[in-house]
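Molybdenum cofactor biosynthesis protein MoeB structure dump, as promised
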Amino acid sequence: MDRYRQQMLLPELGPDGQDRLAGASVLVVGAGGLGSPASLYLAAAGIGRLVLVDPDTVALSNLHRQILFREGDVGMLKVEKASRSLHEFRSDLRLEAHACWLSDENADSLISSVDVVLDCTDNFLARYLLNRMCMNLCIPLVYASVAAWEGQITSFAFDTDGPCLECLYPMVEDGALNCNALGTIGVVPGILGLWQANEAIHILLGQSRLTGRLLHIDLLHHEMREFQYNVAPDCRCRLPANRRHEPDLHQAVRLLTPAEFLASCAVEAGQRQTFSDAARGSYHVVDVRPASEAPGLEGALHVPLEEIAARWTECVSDRPTVFVCQAGVRSLTAAQLLAEKGKTAFSLVGGLSALNELQRGRS
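structure tokens r here:
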């Protein structure tokens, strides 16, 4: 216990609290700008077990904000390298690494084995899935997001009558952006990731501070604001527990990571995988960007987002449909529009920006 002597002097923690942390398990979904500092400081605090979930590989452009990685790690799976770095930092830490995207198929088994979940993802569909599964299993969830110089954080208890993510953000809006679309300075996810670790520790000690409170930080103007929010009257979280599993729109929308997308390419050994290879492969690809933004992609159907509602039948094929745009926001909206017609569709996570970044990391 000598390692934790300084924090055990805190009256809110003490030896008993340190024992609680040592016996706790935390799931960190996303090992990037938020997940890297959160995982490191949870390990530093003495959390007994960490479960890391992230399907992506390290890219050079990640390094300004993802502090678990170094230049020599480019191209490696994030969860594998993060696990090595955390083990070097603390050898007795129990770690599980899952190089996959969170899905309806694996979420239950991953979440049910932990005491707290940290949402360190960068898209709302994954956030909604985490929200729904944590709600069903009554596992506390700590949410944070960043864009440009700003970030926000809150937590959801689920063992009380408090609000959930869908009370705060009832639906994805086309204007919703993330750090991939707007960029960000590395200290923003660093601060928010540390705040997530801090809130997770408070929850494990029975001292949650953020339920029903959204804290917004603006590091460009050095300002902080707090917003109170309540349970939305028509939200899923108001339903009896036995009705929360009923299907919803989001279950007809699937996420497809850039790595999974490129894996569908049929190319000869040594050749660089390209978008057009994938478009001719396993998926029916629909580019929803306007013609004024970019020329249509080779091998893809071009249907601007504003025309999807009228031309949705063109988006249905004997192959799975995957919508793409520049940052993965409009494609998510398009997938939801197709879901309203009873059709399952994929949205490319992070859009073409993330796909191009992955290709650069592999070249």
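The chain has two domains: 2-243, 249-362.
lmk if u need the other ones
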